[in-house]
Amino acid sequence: MQESPLTIILTIKGRTPFTLRWMRYMNDMKCSHRILIADGGNDKEIENRLKEYKNYPDLSYEYIRYPYDADFERYYDKLLDVVNRVQTPYVLFADNDDFFILDKIPSYLDFLEANSDYDSCGGSHGTLEILSDSGDTVNTDKGKGYFISEYCNIPRTIALESPMDRVCYFFEHADVDDLWMNWYFIFRSSVIIDAYNTLKVLRFKEIVGFEIYVLVCSLLSGKCKGYDELFYIRQRGASQLTGSINTDFNLVERFIKNNVFDDLIVSLEYLPVKLTESEKDTFYRSMASWFALHAANLYVSIHKYNYLKKLYRRVVKGNYYLTCYFRRLSMHASNIIRKNKFRYVQVPLLEKYILEENV
Question: What is the pTM of this model?
Fold first, then answer.
């Protein structure tokens, strides 16, 4: 069998049931791509299991144990090391609470091989909610039922000829079209490695600031191709990193508290393309417009839907079947006024891994 040109990087820290679920799924799917597992946790159970490579005979992976991710410094050290272990032309980032539809990958790799002016390629994403007996969304690896909504008909492709125009388009549409999820596209490794090597000289005080920097590097280097087909499914409420950093402050508050804007301003000196002073001003304006929109959406939504949330808790919450029906109904209602639509999708392939009765 020809060796795959893609490496998948899985970063983990604890949450053993999710990692075991991810590995079981990938092994059952006979994933043909090289996997690097970067473990910054302290769970000996998962370490011992993953070091026994015979437990996953249909996977080609390397398990790397790192010092405990006690802070961002250790976390960045782990990222910097594992990314520089990639020896394939393409790379894909994964979390242990997600699922990739693996049969989509060959066409994305073919596209990148045939189009050297594109730096990344991927598909649409679905949000997985695992439900308890009462219909609540739970932060567990399995439950009584599940609900997957796909954000469809989104113009994820960014094919403008000007590198700076691509960056401006991203900031303009990042929240509106959920372009943040392009993080889970396949990227050319060379660009990603160069971007991550910036961590040798600049440690971002906020992980989202670093992710913005990486995405900007990619868009300055090449175009982005997005297909309207389900490729990536992410479990809501299960992200360890997002959950831990959102405990006390939301993203807007963290950006201000940690002065992340200074990091991003400094990072412009390390971009793969040298920006003129005029282009830097354009970058500042574009980033400011995104930040203002994100803040407005965040704080308006806190108060706007309080009545509906209270009604939902009083009438629907606690009844599994009524909860599922209400979610579908509310999705159809919101689609009447939304430009970008949601659709309910069933993925029987996943039920083996997420339903209690099948595990």
Answer: 0.89
Q: Are both 15 and 158 inside the same structural domain?
A: no
Q: Show the DSSP H helices in the chain as ranges.
A: 16-28, 44-51, 72-83, 105-114, 163-173, 189-196, 207-221, 240-245, 251-257, 260-267, 277-304, 306-315, 320-337, 348-354
Last residue of a domain, one of 69, 96, 123: 96
d(CA 216, CA 117): 15
Give the number of residues written for the chain. 359
Amino acid at 171: F
- How does pLDDT run across 217-248, given as a tens digit for each residue? 999 999 999 999 999 999 987 655 544 455 67
CA–CA gap between residue 238 and residue 166 (Å, rounded)? 31
81 and 205 part of one domain: no
* Sign, Cα dihedral of 4, 6, 8, 9: positive
Q: Tokens 């730096």 — which residue?
A: 119
User: What is the C-alpha separation between 143 and 304, in angstroms, rounded?
Assistant: 31
Distance CA 173, CA 165 (A): 12
CB 206 within 8 A of CB 249: no
Domain edge (last residue) among 72, 96, 120: 96
Q: Express each pLDDT in 8-37 by its tens digit.
A: 999 999 899 999 999 999 999 999 999 999
Element at 61 (helix H, strand E): strand 61-65
290 and 192 in a single domain? The answer is yes
Q: Tell me the three state secondary structure of residue 246.
A: coil
What residues contact residue 114 under an 8 Å CB cut-off, 6+ apart? none
The tokens describing 326, both together, are: 């209400």
CA dihedral 7, 120, 211, 166 (to 10 degrees): 170
β-pairing, 98-100 with 223-235?
Answer: antiparallel
Whole-number Å distance between alpha carbons of 108 and 133: 39
Identify whether residues 220 and 274 lie together within a single domain: yes
Mean pLDDT of 118-133: 93
CA distance 80 to 202: 12
